[in-house]
Amino acid sequence: MKTENWGIIGTSEKIQEVLEIIRQVAGTDVAILIQGESGTGKEMIVRAIHVTSSRRPGELVSVNCGAIPEGILESEIFGHEKGSFTGAVSRRIGYFEMANDGTIFLDEIGEMSLQTQVKLLRILELGEFMRVGGTHSLKTNARVIAATNKNLEQEVQKGNFRQDLFYRLKSVTIDVPPLRERGKDIDLITKKFISDFEEKYKINQEGIIPEVMECFHNYSWPGNIRELKNLLESLVLLKKGGKIELSDLPENIRNSRAGVSGLPVYINKTSDQAERELIYGALLGLRADIADLKNMVRDSMDVLRKLTGYRRFDREVGEFSEVVDVPAELNDDISVEKIEAGAINEALRRFNGNRRLAAKALGISERTLYRRLGKLDNFNR
Question: Do the domains at 3-177 and 271-380 have one common CATH topology?
Fold first, then answer.
């Protein structure tokens, strides 16, 4: 890896594309939109752009638009004049003034209200803004970098995000890949984090057995790099030396090695193609799995429970428990509708009912998933 990677670890093609865009845009003043799931390291990319640009001597001001209540977000960003509202006992300098000649990072910009979006658009177009309660415009030379884990194009269609602001921001877009799509980068990132925690906590960690790394590669990492970092920190602290083994992993990550991985995600295909391939693949795969499961049932129900991890949620005790009876999916009457229902229910189970993540794992849109769930309700009646 090159030293100009600014702490961004990885040799995969997707992360190299991100690094190349950083090199191309760092010397410009154009606004940038960074898109990616939560925990993928978007703030590191912002920092890399800032320290590489001519604005490095200026401030890099980070604002989490989703963490600041809407009632005070405008005051925080643009500042306010004394007496402009109850509690405004003095003038306050906003983030855009603080970031003048520097960079302002607006994280989770999809959470910003339409009213505040109008004022942000004015800054992007004219470099002007007004403090809350102010009577004259102020100038700012802050460079704007925004980030979101939402699909802003869909938010525009829903009326939650201004179309003109969206097009103004997306002139340069950086798509940060999720960890599960970065292949061998997982090994490099794991090695770096363990080394950092060894130094931080003065622990000599002997490494990780290959089976654990196999789990890491099979697991979907919904929390991305942040989830991996937190996991490794806890493992290093708990082990206090010695090798990290399968028994040290949480059950959901450990099970990923046994083939209990996420459903396929189809890339660069239309939604119709993805849905057709999903159902066809599920039909073939599940029929084979069902035949194997039937044999397992004949041999030993205990073995069946261990290998399938088939569970149900017990509302009385508030946790999942093992199912002793043979699942209904093992019946001979296997229809396409049942296969589709099984795939959808399995995806929802694996993501604890989160429909957005389930739809992504299934390779279909969330809207399509809602429509399929409605059909399943009618089918089950």
Answer: no
Domain ranges of the chain: 3-177, 180-258, 271-380
* CATH T-level topology, domain 180-258: Helicase, Ruva Protein; domain 3 (1.10.8)
pTM here?
0.66
d(CA 235, CA 226): 14
> Which residue type occupies 248?
D
Element at 105 (helix H, strand E): strand 103-107
- CA 344 to CA 351: how far, in whole Å? 11
Q: Could you give the CA distance from residue 77 to residue 71 in angstroms, rounded to a whole number?
A: 12
In residues, how long is the chain?
381
Taking the C-alpha atoms of residue 258 and residue 249, their distance in angstroms, rounded to an integer, is 13
SS3 of residue 333 by DSSP:
coil
Which residues 6+ apart lie within 8 Å of 41 measured at CB? 8, 176, 224, 225
Q: Are the C-beta atoms of residues 223 and 38 closer than 8 Å to each other?
A: yes
If one compares 140 and 280, the residue with the highest pLDDT of the two is 140
pLDDT digits (tens, 9 = 90+) for 162-211: 999 999 998 899 999 999 999 999 999 999 999 999 999 999 988 899 99
DSSP string, 46-72: HHHHHHHSTTTTS-EEEEETTTS-HHH
Q: What is the DSSP string of 108-120?
A: TGGGS-HHHHHHH
Q: Could you say which architecture CATH assigns to the domain 271-380?
A: Orthogonal Bundle (1.10)
Residue 145 · residue 99 · CB < 8 Å:
no
Q: Residue 49: enclosing H or E segment and its boundaries?
A: helix 42-52
Asked if pLDDT for residue 309 goes beyond 50, the answer is no
Q: In what order do the strands lie in the sheet with 143-148?
A: 60-64, 103-107, 143-148, 32-35, 173-175
CA distances from 356 to 151, 351, 364 (A): 12, 9, 10
Q: What is the CATH number of domain 3-177?
A: 3.40.50.300
* Both tokens assigned to 159: 């009326």
* Pick from 358, 351, 356, 344: nearest CA to 150: 356
Encoded tokens for 202: 């003065």
